[in-house]
Amino acid sequence: MMDETQAPDRIDAQPGGLALDPPARAPAAPQHPQAAGLPLRRFAKVQNVLEMRTRARKAMPRAVFDFIDGAAEQEISRRRNRSQFDNWGFVHRVGVDVSRVDMSVELFGDTYDAPFGIGPTGLAGLAWPKAETLIAQGAKAANIPFCLSTVSSVRLEEVAESAGAGLWFQLYIFRDRGLSRELVSRAKKAGYKALVITVDCATGGNRERDPRNDFTLPLRPTLRSAFDTLKRPGWIGRLVANGAPRPENMVEAAAKAARNAQGLVVFMSEQLDPSVTWDDVEEFVDLWDGPVIIKGVLSTEDAERAVKAGADGLILSNHGGRQLDGAVSSLHVLERVRDAVGPAPTIFCDGGFRRGADILKAKALGANVVLMGRNTLYGVGAAGRPGVDHVIHLLKTEVERALVLLGVPRVSDLTRDHLMDMSRLPPAPAKAD
Ligand SMILES: Cc1cc2nc3c(=O)[nH]c(=O)nc-3n(C[C@H](O)[C@H](O)[C@H](O)COP(=O)(O)O)c2cc1C
Question: Which of 32, 92, 319, 390 does the annotation list as catalytic?
């Protein structure tokens, strides 16, 4: 398995272009969004998401990169999120006309151009000012779903205004239920289409990289972190020009609770409520007129309960390994959850998807769509909006190429027969030659 730290460093093709062995006969890769503007050369050494991660690591202070990249405790779930794909090998088909491939998916009455979307990530403004807006705009331009976090660093109304209708809004059911209800009605008014209720945050995960790096919210430099940060003048300049990011949707509520800026983030974490039950979830499902998706489910019982509560969709997720360390990954449970809930509910998977081939494995095992958290954070942190566009472009190109090589003209035609369970076979050697 290629670890996230072992991205290949040999670059000899155009970004997202096709390797020349054998001679390319695949359909033209999706047009790069920057093709008409900034030179593609800017990303010549960013051939995949893992290389964008390396760029992001260089561009951001270590504490900020680790806040995004890190996970809970020993990061077992985070690592499993990457190794889960090794359990499945592709069995390609030949003799099929794949001169045109269709990557589109239908979700809640909308057609999207690729079988993946962008999941909610709080305080993305740490990576780049107004990151949520930039990512939402990039998703819109690529016609893929985007979900805004409750704890976004841009107000939900502003993101909706600048990225257009049809976005999804993620909700935490806070201790202050009135605050959560108010967020729901604001999201409705702002034109969000789907409500994503996250249920795996009864308390915060124990992310040990953060205290190790003296990372605090709001940001407070220490001697050690200041030294590291000074090596990133671009990041500092943007922070000085735009101010420190904060959970903008909660500013008024925190003020009412007599919290100053310092207390805002504490207020946010105090709002996580370990007493939330399915009755509470049901109440919030009933508040929403459009599709509701429950995020953070892993067991078949919870999946069935979520459907009974009125959910139209489920996100199988261990929160990117950031909550319960040791929690299984989405592909480990996907088939049994699909068997339990049947074909009707929309099933999303997230956690560790960095390649087009990863996405297709989830599709073949019964997922409708894959969501990703860190990928576009790496992109935006490395280069702002062009970084977002490039990440989405790379993934679309990889999905398309993999479909061609799999001999599958429509992504919806992928089935379990295109995969073989490799879990009992010896793992691929870490290094081929
Ligand atoms: C920096 C960061 C912030 C996140 N914030 C939220 C959040 O506010 N709400 C939420 O439901 N999930 C949040 N998540 C989890 C993601 O939605 C998603 O489950 C996870 O990132 C998927 O794993 P991946 O990053 O490997 O794609 C966050 C993840 C990261 C990395």
Answer: 319
